[in-house]
Amino acid sequence: MGTTRSEDTIFVLDTSRSMYRADIGEKSRLNLGIFAIKNIIELKRKEDKTDRFSIVTFNGSISSPNEMYYDSESILNYFVNNAEFQYGTSYGEALAAALRIIVEELRKIGEKSLRIIFISDGIALNSKLNPINVAKTAKELGVYVDILRIGPPKVAGNILKHIADLTKGEYYYISSEQELMEIIKKLAKKKESPIPTIFDKNKNKDLVSSELLAEVAGLPLKLDELSSEQKYKVMKVVGNQKIKCSICYTNKCPVCNSDFYGDGRFCPNCLTPFHLHCAMAWADNQNKKEGFSLENYKIFRCVHCFYLLKIPTKNIYTTAIEENGTGKKIVEKMKIQNAPPELFSSVCAHPDCGVLFDSMEDQYVYYCHNCRSYFHEDCFDNYYSTEHKCPYCKKIVEKS
Question: pLDDT tens across 159-174, in order?
Answer without folding.
Answer: 888 999 988 889 998 8
